[in-house]
């Protein structure tokens, strides 16, 4: 979607639209290299790029993909750039959510809250006994 929208963006006279379209096609190529290297078997360095991208932490991938998707929108704010970069941005958001980790259960949070409350009460009673 990013590549097709980028190609469609390049069919214009406005230089900012052309720059945004070229950037979107570059985004699509980088996403293919990082996420689906089997689609780029004819490129020699595809496996090396994919291996390097796999070593990145999820929050780094999230920042990279979201940053790549925001630049064409800042260059040319049109529906084509918004819809074309939506998938790349969504990929970054999903990596960001995976970086946050698994959701905890309510029982463990309740225990932690109860322990903190008990510690606060003990500190309060200790302070009151120290004043008396």
UniProtKB/TrEMBL annotation:
Species of origin: Phalacrocorax carbo
Taxonomic superkingdom: Eukaryota
Protein name (Swiss-Prot/TrEMBL): Calcium channel flower
Keyword terms: Membrane, Transmembrane, Transmembrane helix
Transmembrane spans: 22-43, 64-95
Keyword Secreted among UniProt keywords: no
InterPro entries: TVP18/Ca-channel_flower (IPR019365)
Any one Gene Ontology BP term: vesicle-mediated transport
């Amino acid at each position: 979607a990013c590549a097709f929208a980028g190609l469609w963006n390049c069919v214009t006279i406005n230089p900012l639209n052309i720059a945004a379209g070229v950037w979107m096609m570059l985004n699509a190529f980088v996403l293919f290299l990082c996420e689906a290297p089997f689609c780029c078997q004819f490129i020699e360095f595809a496996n090396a790029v994919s291996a390097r991208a796999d070593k990145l932490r999820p929050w780094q991938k999230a920042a990279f993909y979201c940053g790549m998707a925001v630049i064409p929108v800042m260059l040319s704010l049109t529906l084509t750039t918004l819809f074309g970069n939506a998938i790349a941005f969504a990929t970054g958001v999903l990596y960001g959510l995976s970086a946050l980790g698994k959701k905890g259960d309510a029982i463990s949070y309740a225990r932690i809250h109860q322990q903190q409350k008990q510690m606060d009460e003990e500190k309060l009673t200790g302070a009151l006994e120290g004043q008396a």
